[in-house]
Amino acid sequence: MAAVCQVTGAVPGFGHNISHSHRRTKRRFDPNIQKKTYFVPSLGRKVTLTLSAKGIKVIDARGIEAVVADLQKRGVKI
């Protein structure tokens, strides 16, 4: 599963692990991605979204109807 949030667009960040001797190795900072299912009354069905924790909070604040409308406007297949 790709580590990308469908609502916020959060993607992995990249950086270094730095050891005690100050050697640097590449690492990846993944967003907290969850699969979450919501019932959308306007569509009359359930929708499964790949969301970050921040994306879940956005849906709680704005409502699933507004978020789904924005996703459809952007052309995201739901």
From TrEMBL:
The keyword Ribonucleoprotein applies. One of its GO terms (cellular component) is ribosome. One of its GO terms (biological process) is translation. One of its GO terms (molecular function) is structural constituent of ribosome. InterPro entries: Ribosomal_bL28 (IPR026569), Ribosomal_bL28/bL31-like_sf (IPR034704), Ribosomal_bL28_bact-type (IPR001383), Ribosomal_bL28_sf (IPR037147). Keywords: Ribonucleoprotein, Ribosomal protein. Belongs to the bacterial ribosomal protein bL28 family. PANTHER family: 39S RIBOSOMAL PROTEIN L28, MITOCHONDRIAL, LARGE RIBOSOMAL SUBUNIT PROTEIN BL28M. This is Large ribosomal subunit protein bL28.
